[in-house]
Design goal:
Low-confidence stretches: 1-5
Order of helices and strands: HEHEHEHEHEHEHHE
Radius of gyration: 18 Å
Structural class: alpha/beta
Mean pLDDT: 94
CATH class: Alpha Beta
CATH superfamily: NAD(P)-binding Rossmann-like Domain
Number of strands: 7
Shape: globular
Helix content: 40-55%
Strand content: 5-15%
Strand order of the largest sheet: 3-2-1-4-5-6-7
Length: 261
């Protein structure tokens, strides 16, 4: 049996940079072959591929536009063609653009639903189809797992980022639906981070102050989220549930989104 046939492969969407890159590296460290998905960040994606390959021996980059259904549908077959198999999908890529009840529009909601809800569902569907094909071909032990990256915001709602929040709420509901629909071949687990990385909306000083606002005195780190994703992929008793990895931030009431505070 070839090393490609023995080694598990995971597709991590939006893994060229930031939190997705941390997940990809953690999975490579754990021995997974990593398919690095990106949309526009080709150079960063290739840097992530090189770093993953040093850890696991193989990695490759795949571009796909999650606003385009055909682009999404082609992604899993391309990964399978390259690696020979796919065992897991981490749905990390996410559109995060501000709107609220006053600025809400069909256009904003549709964009978020396409990227943050529809694409993860299609990729889960494609993984399930692939696992069924492997079983039919004699790989009776084939099984898969999906991790959907959610947001502690769903358990601590505020008026900001309305379309984003709705798209993640729909994905959280899909956790349950897909866990039932794709069983027993594929498990589906959610991981919901708290405030994890700073952005252009927050100064480092403000980020550190907000990060400490939790019962544990710290929110999630990239290492915490990556560890939770690895755990979810390895624990074969978990499905249809979500791990909140946020230092307890979902237990506190925040009137605005962190980036607007």
């Amino acid at each position: 049996m070839s090393s490609t046939a023995r080694t598990r492969t995971v597709l991590v969407t939006g893994s060229a940079r930031r939190l997705g890159r941390d997940m990809a590296l953690a999975l490579a460290r754990a021995g997974w072959q990593v398919a690095v998905h990106y949309r526009d960040s080709h150079e960063s994606a290739m840097q992530t591929v090189a770093a993953c390959a040093e850890l696991s021996g193989d990695s490759a980059a795949f571009d796909a536009d999650f606003f385009d259904e055909e682009s999404v549908r082609s992604l899993v077959p391309r990964v399978v063609e390259r690696f020979g198999r796919l065992d897991a999908v981490v749905n990390n890529a996410s559109l995060f653009e501000h709107d609220d009840a006053q600025s809400f529009s069909y256009v904003a909601l549709e964009a978020h639903l396409r990227s943050n809800t529809a694409a993860p569902i299609l990729l889960s569907q494609a993984l399930h189809t692939h696992i069924l094909a492997r079983i039919a071909a004699g790989d009776e032990g084939a099984h898969g797992a999906v991790v959907n990256v959610l947001d502690q915001k769903l358990w601590n709602q505020n008026p900001d980022f309305l379309s984003y929040t709705l798209s993640k709420a729909a994905l959280e509901a899909a956790n349950t639906i897909l866990a039932l629909a794709l069983a027993p071949q594929v498990r589906v687990v959610g991981v919901a981070p708290g405030l994890t990385l700073t952005s252009h909306m927050l100064s480092q000083e403000k980020f550190e102050a907000l990060h400490s606002m939790s019962p544990l005195g710290r929110s999630s780190s990239p290492e915490d989220i990556a560890a939770a994703v690895c755990f979810a992929l390895e624990n074969r008793s978990m499905t249809g549930t979500t791990m909140l990895v946020d230092g307890g931030q979902h237990l506190q009431r925040f009137e605005r989104d962190f980036s607007m505070m």
